[in-house]
Structure formats: C-alpha cells, structure tokens
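WARN no homologs supplied; continuing
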Amino acid sequence: MDFHLPGFIFTQLYKNDLVIIEPKEKLVRAVEIPSKGKEINPTQNVNKLQWLGNNQRNISILVEDAENVFIGENELQFLSNILAACKFNIGDVSIINLAKTPASFNQIIEDANSKFVLFFGVNAEKISLPQHDNLFEIKTIHKVQILNAPSLQSMMQNTPDAKTFKGKLWNALKVMFQL
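OK structure emitted
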C-alpha cells in the first residue's frame, strides 16, 4: 500500500532536525562595471521586425496570414516556385507576416534593408503607404521598388483569373528583377 503524507506532517515530525547544505560556490557582492561605448536600451528590440528567410538579396515579401506565424505550408511551396522561376530561393528574401508583426514601410526598409517589396494581398495603408490599387504595377518609393499582387491563396486557385494573375505577376517580376 502506498501512502502520501501531507507536507505539514513532515514539518511536525522533523521540527527539531535541521540540515544545512553548504553552497558549492561562494556568493560575491555585485559590482557595477562602467560601460564603454553605446548604452544599451532595454526597450530597443521590443518592436524588432521578424521575418522568415535570410534576406540575402534584400527582397521583402509582405503577406497577411492570421493563422500562421509567417506563411502556410502550401503558400510557402507556391512562393518557393515563384522565387525559383526568378532564380531566387527563400534564403534570398524576408517573408513578413503583417498579421503577426505589424510594421510601417519605413521600419521594413530600415530593418530589412529592402530594395524590393512585394505585397501579396496586403493593403498598402496597413504599412502607412498611400493606397496602391494598381495590381502588378511597379512603383518606386524611397528608392525601393514595390509591387502589389493578389494574395498567394487567390493565385493558387485553379481558375482562369488565377492563371491570368500568375501571368501578370511573372511579367512584372521579369521587369522588376530584370530577368
């Protein structure tokens, strides 16, 4: 039979016994060390932009996916195929999910050092830019080329519109990246 005794019973049974365990390391008083150089601001990284990819070519891809941290598995595969057609891969880009990491256009181009920004189903006003309704039209803002396209999910569909969108996207990407 297995008995479990409540904690207060142990304290009553062993109230006169005391075991002192010596610490292996001696504690020393904390000393303030003067810092040289830049002072660290603890709130500095609070709103740090997070992305998927290594951003080796300074290409930011903006999506809005409330269900995933960055992007869904099917959308990632579809995007990988688009990038492969342009001779790029996920390591060349930064995929930023604005549903999980809100950011302004200025923060994106500063933190990710973006030279190109692709919007996939993202409203430009969400990142403090004027509305950019013209799909597949390349614009330049602050020396950064931007391209607005429908969401990846809508282009993954097996419909005539999706096929048309993919063709227009490919033509715009050829111009943008000089392919």
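The two ends are 78 Å apart (CA to CA).
OK
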